């Protein structure tokens, strides 16, 4: 178990921003000239991190920066992070689809990468021919595929159609066949992207089950990239959290998932100030938010039983339109829990001025936890006047006995008025 | 039962002269599956599909016979015009098709290359092999016309003993097509507009190759230029071994062989260096 399967040292990857293709000849010449004189690449700016929301002052960004980690043989490593954190880039480098800018990876064992199912499927070929083609693309030899052909066909459940061209398959059948080929790929190191988790629930279960078999039963090393925290917890023995192209955390899967969730929480305190002057109020030329307040309906602490009152005032400039506003509540898994609006004016007769509106979420609906609140202002239920998806954050506390965990699983927490009946027997 | 584990090192730049022949050999099954896929797909799509391979060279040959043979009155070394042009067109088409189709390997296959790794050179090599099938069909057509001319007594069978060199000609043409294709595909990934230039350039190159005229009809001062073209000895040799006209010069053929091998190796090196980072520029 202590053998190292993959060793990643100082790995960095740089991408060029903007439209690639203009001015590259001159850049190339500059680079070449610098290299001849033994100077560094003039277009590499060290120290710039990849933060998508801010415009950098260089045309180049580091999608990955100084990544270091080791994976032991038989380990299932989860890689988690936001969109654009560098997960896919890391996988692409590991699977040799693209090369790193600096750094080095040493891997012991055949690497098989599964970034997409069904790569290279040709519609005119039959299922059987595509199994061979796809298998060979993924790195299997003809003999290997032949020996597993029956199992693959069996697993896919397409035995009856195996000699029919794939263009006659339903899309579901195509995915099943493609996954079946991938499932019987047997490299010592398997790299899997979460794209595998498409398909219906049954298929996902099958896919996850197969992944578990691969890692547990056969002792192979697996690298697994996912947004789904549950499957990371279930499958992985260890996980790393990537943020802006850097490794932020490296530990067992549970702590990594918690770290990731907490890191998102910390980012939420953007608008602690909830009253603004007209001049610097958030919004645009049509809408300006003057104040917002999230408060309990009962008592003075936001909790499961308190209910939530969301109240805000905004200035509206556009007259004589059908004005509507929507509140959107999102949890930390980025699932939209509530998206509900209200028409403030119809028969187009909105007025210029300050509207104040309050929404009420009754007690015993939302479970405890952190939530993000977004606001949308629209015209005719069609055009967006102004929209902000993560405006402020709030936390619902739980009020359980001391021996229970702070937050129970589940999106909802309902008052289910349980009724119990008991009859002694015997 | 732990077998020896393969060690893979991924680094920004690979060694200059790593030709990856071993890797390509490992993926030979994939190579032949690609060839099979392309052949099957081409034939399944249309009923007229295979027929086109007959119609196109016949039309080209007829056009050349009419314009260059009859209107312009270019010499055909005493050969029947149809046979003369068809011999040139058959060889030239194989070379130019291989070059044209391989020259946009990266842009054409970006989808699949972006998702999975295999030695990228497999793609152009499989295209060149697939093209052999079309070359075979056109060769059959050539033999058909040859037989027709022999039977009707317009031309007497004139095969030369050098015919055993024919497989060598095919190999040289493959290496030339691939070599140019490798280099051009590396360039077209970066400078996309080059593609239009290639189609045009290949057409021009044809006039610098004895396809529509025999080498012997050239004034001596142009000969060195035309002979610098590595396709010249191939077409001349082809005509000589099948039709007995033209020249058979081992020096010239040797030049083609050396040119083809050097071009292929340089092309493969450039190609292998491009494959690493082309995904970022496509």
From TrEMBL, chain A:
Superkingdom field: Bacteria
PROSITE patterns membership: ABC_TRANSPORTER_1, ABC_TRANSPORTER_2
Domain (ABC transporter) ranges: 47-269
KW Lyase (keyword) present: no
Lineage of source species: Bacteria, Pseudomonadati, Bacteroidota, Cytophagia, Cytophagales
Name the UniProt record assigns to this protein: ABC transporter ATP-binding protein
Molecular-function annotations in GO: ATP binding
PANTHER family the record matches: TEICHOIC ACIDS EXPORT ATP-BINDING PROTEIN TAGH
Family named by the database record: Belongs to the ABC transporter superfamily.
Swiss-Prot/TrEMBL keywords: ATP-binding, Nucleotide-binding, Transport
Automatic annotation (TrEMBL), chain B:
Transmembrane spans: 51-72, 78-95, 129-151, 163-184, 196-215, 250-271
Domain ABC transmembrane type-2: 48-274
Membrane topology classification: Multi-pass membrane protein
Location(s) in or outside the cell: Cell inner membrane; Cell membrane
UniProt keyword Protein biosynthesis present: no
UniProt keyword list: Cell inner membrane, Cell membrane, Membrane, Transmembrane, Transmembrane helix, Transport
Keyword Iron attached: no
Pfam families named in the record: ABC2_membrane (PF01061)
PANTHER family according to UniProt: INNER MEMBRANE TRANSPORT PERMEASE, TRANSPORT PERMEASE PROTEIN
Family: Belongs to the ABC-2 integral membrane protein family.
Name by which UniProt lists this protein: Transport permease protein
Organism: Roseivirga thermotolerans
